[in-house]
Amino acid sequence: MRGKWLPLALMMAFVLSRVPGLLPENFSAAYALAFCAGVFFPGAMAWWLPLGALLLSDVALNFYYSLELGWSVWEAPALVSQLFNYAAFAALIALGRRFKPHAPFLALLGGGVLGAVLFYLITNTASWFFNPFHNPEYTRTLAGWLTALTRGTAGWPQTWEFFRNTLLSGALFTALFVGAHRLTATAESPAEKHAGVSEAEPEAEAKPETEESRA
């Protein structure tokens, strides 16, 4: 049963975390989801389920941003930059595949935080390099790259605040997902417990040999 509902629960948390305005900027379950999918999801599901959910939610968000806010999210530079999000999420899944599901809690928590750091570096570097919204601060220089990683553009919160939210949400949701997996892994159904008791019953002892049986 755990293998059926845990992926669905993680997808639900991921989709809800992407609703505009629900959480602070860059505070998302997505980083932990991708990492934990690599750790806990079996086989190809670790790839197609989180990336598929990401694609569907991105299409919905792009329509929202273009129709409601007037952002140029369907232009080529923006779409190319968005592709790096998928590369970053794929990197998080690949990182998760290097961990065992029963690895120590702190090791998995550290992996989730490391994944959040990788995501931040990859996506902010892509935003700086492709500069889809033509931000004047993002010059193709080392200073421009450092600006993209620390201060960002005028009119928005500084990117170090986004980095803080990325780290906090990566740690929080990784802890929640790992904890949920550990709790479901240790819980047994009554049928499983009964089966375990039945299998553990000792065989009936052989009757002691009597004089008549030896005759």
Report on this structure.
With 215 residues, the protein is mainly α. It has one domain. The protein has helices spanning 2-17, 30-40, 45-68, 76-96, 105-130, 142-150, 159-186, 190-200, 211-214. α1 runs parallel beside α3, α2 (30-40) crosses α4 and α5 packs across α6 (142-150). The longest helix is centred in the last third of the chain and has 28 residues, at 159-186. Residues 188-215 have low confidence and may be disordered.
User: What percentage of amino acids are in beta strands?
Assistant: under 5%
Write down the Rg.
25 Å
User: Which stretches are low in confidence, meaning pLDDT under 50 for 5 or more residues running?
Assistant: 188-215
The tally of helices reads 9
Q: How far is the N terminus from the C terminus?
A: 57 Å
Which class best fits the helix and strand makeup? Answer: mainly alpha
Structural domain tally: 1
Mean pLDDT: 82
Helix content percent band: 55-70%
N-to-C series of helices and strands? HHHHHHHHH
Number of strands: 0
